[in-house]
Description:
Strands 1-2-4-3 form a 4-stranded antiparallel β-sheet, with helices on both faces. The chain has 216 residues and is an alpha+beta fold. It has one domain (3-211): NADH Oxidase. Helix 1 (3-9) crosses helix 6 and helix 4 (86-103) packs across helix 5. 44% of the residues lie in helices and 13% in strands. It has helices at 3-9, 23-33, 52-67, 86-103, 107-116, 135-154, 169-176, 208-211, and strands spanning 46-50, 123-130, 158-162, 182-191. The mean pLDDT is 94. The two termini are 35 Å apart.
Amino acid sequence: MEFREVLQNRRSVRCFNDQPIERDTLIGIIRDAQHTPSWANSQPWRVYLATGKTLDGIKADHYAASSQGLRGQAEFSTMHREAWDPETRRNMGKWSTQIRGHLGADHADEYGDSQRDLFHAAAIAYLTIPTQSSLWSVFDLGAFSQTLMYSAVARGVSTMSAYETVKYPQIVRKWMDIPETEMVAMGIALGYADDYRINAFVSEREPLDKILTVKD
């Protein structure tokens, strides 16, 4: 698959089927992501890959916590949408309206259920950085995440990076034995896309002239 094709085919998949991912495929995806550049080659990322019974345990605990309405405690700070920059807030509002329109009256159940079930992922790659990190390491981890997702797409594997995966980091830590010296930053769900309505939604991007400034 050509890179431009990979770039254009990547999208957030919110419901995977039950087909497992070969271990060699998963390892290859992570190995590809290691080519990501970082500040002074610091390579701050660590990857904890949950599959099989371990992932089943995480899913069960996550479902129970979510069903009980337990508040999320992500280790990366969050803020209310009203506190975001007006332009980014407008984009998020537009996205919410569009996905609700796409799903119709069943939106709340379909969208919420997929999150509680961690998207029925075949695997989840949990990404960490050291607790002693600068914001540059967060930038590096974002680049690593993107490289990982592009590698997955090139291998026919779909992805979903989401706050939901790290909403309850205590659950992730329990099952993955992540040391306290590392922050649970993000989880990327992996699998093969199910033929499900929610997966047909593709979010829009801003016109290029709104985000690009060129000065000769």
